[in-house]
UniProtKB/TrEMBL annotation:
Residues 296-348 form the PAC domain. It is a multi-pass membrane protein. The keyword Transmembrane applies. This is histidine kinase. Residues 222-292 form the PAS domain. Keywords: ATP-binding, Kinase, Membrane, Nucleotide-binding, Phosphoprotein, Transferase, Transmembrane, Transmembrane helix, Two-component regulatory system. InterPro entries: BphY/WalK/GraS-like, HATPase_C_sf, HATPase_dom, His_kinase_dom, HisK_dim/P_dom, HisK_dim/P_sf, PAC, PAS. SUPFAM superfamilies: ATPase domain of HSP90 chaperone/DNA topoisomerase II/histidine kinase, Homodimeric domain of signal transducing histidine kinase, PYP-like sensor domain (PAS domain). Residues 366-585 form the Histidine kinase domain. Pfam families: HATPase_c, HisKA, PAS_3. It comes from Archangium lansingense. PANTHER family: SENSOR HISTIDINE KINASE GLRK (PTHR42878:SF7), TWO-COMPONENT HISTIDINE KINASE (PTHR42878). The chain crosses the membrane at residues 187-206.
Length: 602
């Protein structure tokens, strides 16, 4: 009896709760409908106000256009249009003032009304001046100087009003949404008690279905993106089964091999691999499957349709599932046939160029030695002839012979230096310039070179000044260092005839410094950065001659000894060459510094 009564009471309480929930829900629906209707009316009014503001802005622009047209052509119909626009403006403005309730918007309307009065007063003044016969240029100037700024300010206020109204409209929309959300929330809470069990089960079921649907849609989108990327990729892509069969191919892969997808799908990639590359491919696949490598990249050859060979750059990686089990291999290939052809062509051209250089350098070396061979006896004969001529100084013929023999010796020495430069240049091209390092007194070496150049300096009218009294001993190649000093001194005498030449040797810490200073023609500023380049000339070779290798060889030798040479010059005021050398140069072969290039004699 009690159980039946309790069960009946529970059922009655349940029905009461359900009816109460339904009543609250019905009341919530009515409240929501009422509030929604009220807010809908307010929303419509806000939208209408925004449209009215936009129309005011349109009327403002039309008034400005009519005003400008009337200034240019005072036609009656234009003035009528202007007045009608102004009247419509006033009507719209009054209507807007009656409906707008936002404080900030009403303040902006008040400023708009003030600017409108000012614009109308100024326009009436312009109209009056027009009727009095004022010049159009003056009226246009007044329009531009006075009326335009007022109208720009009016448009700015209208834009500000429009922004306020848009914000008010958006706030009304948000308020309606919040009200609707609160009503719906109350309705849901009221109905929740009656349909808790069914609602919970239904909610769980719906959520599960939605998640499943979203997951399916995401999978479909992901698959679509993958297929689009796969099919439109600029390289060939393929999915390869674990037994080596092609499962999926894009069009680019098929184009590289020259087959259609129908011909390739289901086929084993090894059947289309060049026989010489199959063993390496098998080894790479075994390492990939064993987990020794996560991916591989190599160049390989495929057999195209028709039997031709195509080179490809292959990249492959093993794709695994969440548990680490292998699924398939993703492979990408890129056609590198053109690159391979260019590499082969470049290798062939390089080999040909190296052979040509070898032959040229061999020829230069042989030619240099052959050219030097007749110069040695010629020099000896000239020395003998000079001694015989000097043995009879009283004979006029002997004095003439002596002068000519000395000139001949100078030409032989010049030819010898040119041949030495040519031979050094050929050695530089092959890196065969060797350094024979020994202890050298740079001061003594400079004094000796200056002594040998005294006759040349005397003929050039140059006074040689040597400041090298203190010994400066370092470990250098004496012959190459003498070549450097001779080259710099020869240039100083060549380009500074009649002017003094200074040679100074000094030591500073672990460095030795040689300075060669002349007061000749100098070097142009645009030529100075290139003065040490091979075959470079600061002046015309027609007047000064030479091969343009002296300074290049000088810098090469100095850098080979671990030092540096720099040039400073002002055109017309001479040039200064400064050589700095470490007192102990590096042992071994001379090498080009970074950025230098060995001369290639022709």
């Amino acid at each position: 009896m009690r159980a039946s009564f309790f069960s009946g009471g529970l059922v009655g309480a349940l029905w009461v709760a359900i009816l109460l929930a339904l009543g609250v829900g019905f009341a919530s629906v009515l409240t929501l409908r009422s509030v929604t209707q009220e807010q809908g009316v307010a929303l419509v009014q806000e939208a209408a106000d925004l449209e009215a503001v936009q129309h005011l802005l349109f009327l403002s622009e039309r008034r400005a256009r009519y005003a400008r047209s009337w200034l240019l052509s005072p036609e009656p119909h234009i003035f009528r249009e202007l007045e009608e626009t102004r009247q419509e403006w006033d009507v719209r403005l009054r209507q807007l003032e009656e409906t707008l309730t936002v404080k900030d918007a009403r303040a902006v309307l008040a400023r708009i009304r003030e600017r409108q009065h000012a614009i109308q007063a100024l326009m009436d003044h312009i109209v009056a001046r027009r009727e009095q016969g004022a010049r159009v240029e003056d009226l246009k100037l007044q329009f531009e100087m006075e009326l335009r700024p007022l109208r720009v300010g009016l448009d700015e206020e209208l834009a500000r009003l429009m922004a306020l109204q848009e914000e008010s409209l958006q706030e009304a929309v948000r308020q309606q949404e919040r009200t609707r959300l609160r009503a719906v929330t109350r309705l849901g809470m009221a109905m929740l008690g009656a349909i808790l069990a069914a609602g919970a089960c239904g909610g769980l079921l719906v959520r599960s279905l939605r998640r499943h649907r979203r997951a399916e849609e995401e999978v479909q989108r992901s698959e679509a993106r993958f297929r689009a990327t796969f099919n439109q990729a600029a390289v060939g892509l393929a999915q390869v089964a674990l037994d080596g069969r092609w499962l999926l191919l894009n069009q680019r892969f098929c184009d590289i091999l020259g087959y259609s997808a129908k011909d390739l799908l289901g086929q084993r990639f090894v059947d289309f691999t060049h026989p010489e590359d199959r063993a390496r491919d098998a080894a790479n696949v075994r390492r990939l499957m064993a987990g020794e490598i996560s991916s591989l990249s190599c160049e390989k050859r495929y057999l195209r349709k028709g039997g031709s060979v195509v080179w490809a750059d292959l990249s492959a990686s093993l794709v695994r599932d969440d548990e680490g089990r292998p699924l398939y291999v993703l492979a990408a290939i890129e056609d590198i046939n053109r690159r391979k052809a260019l590499e082969e062509e470049r290798a062939l051209l390089l080999a040909e160029a190296q052979e040509a250089l070898r032959l040229r350098e061999e020829f230069l070396s042989v030619a240099s030695h052959e050219l030097r061979t007749p110069l040695t006896p010629l020099s000896l004969k000239l020395q003998v002839l000079l001694r015989e001529a000097r043995a009879y100084p009283e004979l006029p013929f002997a004095r003439r012979v002596e002068a000519r023999v000395v000139s001949g010796q100078q030409q032989v020495q010049r030819m010898t230096r040119l041949i030495d430069d040519l031979l050094d240049a050929s050695h530089l091209g092959t890196g065969r310039l060797m350094l024979r390092l020994e202890d050298v007194d740079l001061a003594a070496l400079v004094r000796e070179v200056a002594r040998r150049f005294e006759p040349v300096a005397l003929r050039a009218g140059c006074a040689l000044e040597v400041d090298a009294a203190v010994p400066v001993v370092g470990r250098w190649d004496a012959r190459r260092l003498e070549q450097v000093v001779s080259s710099l001194l020869s240039n100083a005498l060549k380009f500074g005839p009649g002017q003094p030449v200074l040679l100074r040797v000094e030591a500073e810490g672990r460095l030795a410094r040689l300075t060669v200073r002349d007061e000749g023609i100098g070097i142009a500023s645009e030529q100075l950065p290139h003065i040490f380049d091979r075959f470079s000339r600061g002046v015309s070779d027609r007047h000064y001659g030479g091969m343009g290798l002296g300074l290049f060889l000088t810098r090469y030798v100095v850098r080979s000894l671990g030092g540096e040479v720099v040039a400073e010059s002002t055109p017309g005021q001479g040039a200064t060459f400064t050589v700095q050398l470490p007192l102990r140069a590096a042992e071994g072969r001379g090498e080009l510094a970074p950025g230098d290039e060995a001369p290639q004699p022709v």
